[in-house]
Amino acid sequence: MARPLPFKIAVVSTVLFFVCTSYVYCNNGRRVGDVMDTEFSGFSVPLEHSFEVDEIAKFRVRGALVLKAGREPSVSLTQSQLSEEDRTKLKEVAAVDGLYRIRVPRVFLQADRQTERQMEGYLTSFVRACAMVESHLSDVISLHTDVSGYVIGVSIVTFPGACRGTEVEDEVDLEVFNTTLSIMPPVNAPGPDTALFVERMEQETEKKGKNPQEQKSFFAKYWYLILGGAIFLMVTNSAQPPAGGGREQS
Amino acid sequence: MEKLILLCLKCILLCSIVEAVFEDQVGKFDWRQQYVGKVRFAHFDTHMQSSKKVLLATENNVFASLNTRTGELLWRHVDMTGPEGNIDALLQYGQDAVLMVGNGRQLRSWDINVGGLNWEIVLDSGSFQSACLVGQQDFVKHVAVLKKTVISLHYLSNGHQKWVENLPESETVDYQAVYSGGNGEVYALGVVPHSHIAIVAYSLEDGEIIKQISVEAPWLSNIQASCAVIGQGMLTCVDSAAGSLYTLDLHEQSQMTQIPLQSLGLEVTPGFQPVLVSTQPNPARPPLSEFFLQLGPEHHLLLQLSDGQIVTLRDFKPAMLVAFATPGEKTVAAVMSPKNKTACSLNLFSAESGRRLLDTTLIFNLDPNGGKPEKLHVQAFLKKDDSVGYRVMVQTEDHMLTFIQQPGRVMWTRDEALSDVVTMEMVDLPLTGTQAELEGEFGKKADGLLSMLLKRLSSQVILLQAWIAHLWKMFYDARKPRSQVKNDVTIETLSRDEFNLQKMMVMVTASGKLFGIDSKTGSIVWRHYLDNIPSNAAFKLMVQRTTAHFPHPPQCTLLIKDKDTGLATLHVFNPIFGRKSHVTPPALPQPILQSLMLPLMDQDYAKVLLLVDDQYKVSAFPSTKNVLQQLQEMASSIFFYLVDSNQGRLSGYRLRTDLSTELIWEVVMPTEVQKIVSIKGKRPNEHVHSQGRVMGDRSVLYKYLNPNLLAVVTESTDLHQERSFIGILLIDGVTGRIIHEAVQRRTRGPVHVVHSENWVVYEYWSTKSRRNEFSVIELYEGMELYNSTVFSSLDRPHAPQVLQQSYIFPSSISAMEATLTEKGITSRHLLVGLPSGGILSLPKMFLDPRRPEIVTEQSREENLIPYAPELLIRTEWFINYNQTVSRVRGIYTAPSGLESTCLVVAYGLDIYQTRVYPSKQFDVLKDDYDYMLISSVLFALFFATMISKRLAEVKLLNRAWR
């Protein structure tokens, strides 16, 4: 009885898994006809940045994020170079250990219409301006989405991330952004993995099955020990009463 | 199957941790206190003269019986929490107590001697209004239950329903009370607010309506609040607007008689709703014709109704509380009146005449750290000479019960506020005087060689003195029999022990009462009641200064915040003595959004508390010049975050030098998809000993130890079981960077989270498989550390490696916490409070995402347990053996001075304190350690070397002579 049951569980859970995945696949809330024009028409939102010596944020456009909505959303970025004025300002901000901030508007990637895609408010993030300068404007920006395709957060890090106080002499290094961009959807957390465990159990029982030595029952294997123990107990039990009787007599 | 058992055995062998206590250790390191909660109904067992029981039904859905001599629980029944277990009514007759539970859902009868259930019947669910015992010819055989639309009669012996009748015109009439005077009729009293009273009389035998009358009463809106049945079925009501009493004979009249209070020479205190208090000593007989009328907060009158006339028997002014009691045939009334500021006096009066009974004065001393008396429960009895004696149980605003005997001896007290602990902290006890002296010597700044020498000599002399005193005490105590040597815990004797195992537990309860409890014995060292606490207050307790900074006293700060308005107050106190500190906390006119303790200290070693108000302005406490200067220097590295779960917004701020703030990051989770349920950071006093884990191939996997990491738990708004999910986000609290984002699909809350070191453990309900599951996330930097000297959130460009694994757990859980030790060397355990009342100590080793599916040589080398999808509950993991802890709401852990030992307090309805040793007591010698053997071996070796040395010398000498 023990063997078929785990197997059944495995089969049932696999079937269930397929049913469920296909169910999720079907139910992404859109009609089939719409897929073509949403999947391939990207839309763009501004990526803004701000770096001020007095730390009062003034956001200006840094580039445009072109987002492609759909089941596997993608993103690309077009951005211009930093102007002469901005370069000096960035170095000034870095000198006083100010912040380099970015922001993107809140976006819903799964919506069909342009009006539904953008929502009120922004998502902001920052790095230290000196890190931006010392990394020669090479940054990594990731947009984090939730399960249904809303962008919930943006993060920016630079490579290298440290501020070591090295001077960036060459103005050319601060002209072009070297940006790596990605969209990070949530990871599906694993559930308890029963199927593999059951499979492994079965394998081991099969292995056991091949070895006839192991297949003997408990009693068949250890009958001599049990018998010996029983005899020992009997002997000790029968030896005791005379001793007790002797004590009574005295 | 055999294979499975073998595997389990292997697991057990791999981590052979034996944690059960031995029989002789029970109660040695642990204690439990059981509570019942705020009392709603109390009845003294009067059917036997010598009985010493009081029955309590409480707001926490507990029905219990106390021993009136000692105040200990005789038995206790804990019902479901919430409205399903709510106790609506408690009626007592003889040995039976009838309980109405769950808004009229269940009717239960209990045997009060042993606390056993006689019977239970389930009624139609419906809004319960009132219940009463119904008797006839001096025997009570039935209980009547009145609901919104039906009235039913049940046998007291077995609960069977005798009859059930629909109430006439129940759509318009609001039936509120049921009454029976023992004449074979049951009256249902209802009211159409501001119109008329409806009275329906049912026959006891078959439930037939005998008579149905309606009486004009345009001034009445609530019968239970303003009416009572007095004497031979006279419904008496009081109308505060007109200032008059109304009487109505239920048997005959159809018109109310108005008796203006002015005609009796009485007047209602303005703004006070008068209350009538009547008594019905025997349910089979009509109530007494004497009753109390309360006209003001401290004004009571004993009145008598005879032949439609009201006579004033006695005027009690001032009198705060009154109560009737019936020992034997005569009824007496107990009246509590204020004596002076710190005491109240109680007196007994004959109910019939209003005369004061001789020698019945009882003094009740008010606790200056307690609340005002709220309710009076009187246990009266006849003495041998037929005079009346009595004891009273006084219930005060702080949920405390005090039982007093004449002439004022407090027999016992119970602090029922402790059944609702909200938050707690453990504070180290202060050093003894001598230790403090030494500390003080090293603490002060050096001023000259000579003075230092003198100081050293003086402290040595003090130490010598203390030692001699200690020796003398030991000698003195040794002559006394052991039972007489008492170890009373008083404030004077409180001092830190060698291993800092004894601490002060500071507990904050929902009622606003603070307690200081000695963790070794569980005795309450101090209490402090804070009045004016809003009912929906949120509390946050912080330790600003520990006991380590002698001569500055330790200091705790309690932030009390009104959840609706956001307005907050601070209460600053000494956690060892409970006294309010002389430090005046700042007034907080603005609603407070966030509070945070900084590791900064002012010149008096008090940690700085920052409070952020709704204008995003920051104020510091203490706010001395020194602190402000430090804050200005540190401002650019002080970050904090705010959470607005209504809008799903997490935002990070940085402090500016002028104590204003600037928004630096923002994460917004749309509330139409998910809502933020909880946020867990790491505990600030946590130490991690090892930076990494040694793998099977001797390489090191470094842990990602970000002290600013936050674990954010979200639940989906869509609760359909196919689409619901829970989300776990790991966010850096400084930069707002989302380190990891995971969703657990087809699951729902409640989620319990523990976040510590480099791991997050959470528990949830899987709707797919209908079971509870545990999941663990661990974060690793990889094989190399990015910057091994210091961790900075601003400079960690690489995302950590994330490992996750899930397990099935065979029980739901009610609270979870991780053990905590001094240096973090000891392995960690999770302490899981189960609804069954057990507290499970689950080794973290079982929740390790690196548990391999297939066992390899390397994983065996690393001591990893092979993966098994189910976590077993092993009975020896229960740290509270048979000491069930009801309704665990929280578990608190604190490190002790011993690295192996962690102090644990579980609180809920009960409080349980114990110690756990997650890696066994590796730093403690066993009790049965053989000192004799080791010392004799040492001595033997010593002498052997001496002798052999001597022999060697002789030999050398002899050789030299040759």
TrEMBL record, chain A:
Ranges that cross the membrane? 6-26, 222-240
Would the keyword Transmembrane helix turn up in this protein's UniProt record? yes
Keywords, ordered alphabetically? Endoplasmic reticulum, Membrane, Signal, Transmembrane, Transmembrane helix
Q: Where in the cell is it found?
A: Endoplasmic reticulum membrane
**Cited Pfam families:** ECM10
Q: Which GO terms describe its cellular component?
A: EMC complex
Q: Which domain of life is it from?
A: Eukaryota
- Indicate yes or no for the key word Transmembrane helix: yes
Q: What topology does the record note for this protein and the membrane?
A: Single-pass type I membrane protein
Give the multimer and partner information.
Component of the ER membrane protein complex (EMC).
Q: What family does this chain come from, according to its entry? A: Belongs to the EMC10 family.
Query: What is the designated name of this protein?
Result: ER membrane protein complex subunit 10
Q: Which organism is it from?
A: Zoarces viviparus (Viviparous eelpout)
Automatic annotation (TrEMBL), chain B:
Gene Ontology terms describing biological process: protein folding in endoplasmic reticulum
* Bilayer topology: Single-pass type I membrane protein
Q: Name the SUPFAM superfamilies for this protein.
A: Quinoprotein alcohol dehydrogenase-like (SSF50998)
Q: Where is the ER membrane protein complex subunit 1 C-terminal domain?
A: 756-961
Q: Which Gene3D superfamilies match?
A: YVTN repeat-like/Quinoprotein amine dehydrogenase
Source domain of life is Eukaryota
Signal sequence residues: 1-20
Keywords, alphabetical: Disulfide bond, Endoplasmic reticulum, Glycoprotein, Membrane, Signal, Transmembrane, Transmembrane helix
Location in the cell reads: Endoplasmic reticulum membrane
What Gene Ontology cellular component terms go with this record?
EMC complex
InterPro entries, alphabetically?
Answer: Beta-prop_EMC1_1st, EMC1, EMC1_C, Quinoprotein_ADH-like_sf, WD40/YVTN_repeat-like_dom_sf
Residue stretches making up the EMC1 first beta-propeller domain: 20-416
Classification via Pfam families: Beta-prop_EMC1_N, EMC1_C
Its subunit composition reads: Component of the ER membrane protein complex (EMC).
Family assignment? Belongs to the EMC1 family.
Name by which UniProt lists this protein: ER membrane protein complex subunit 1
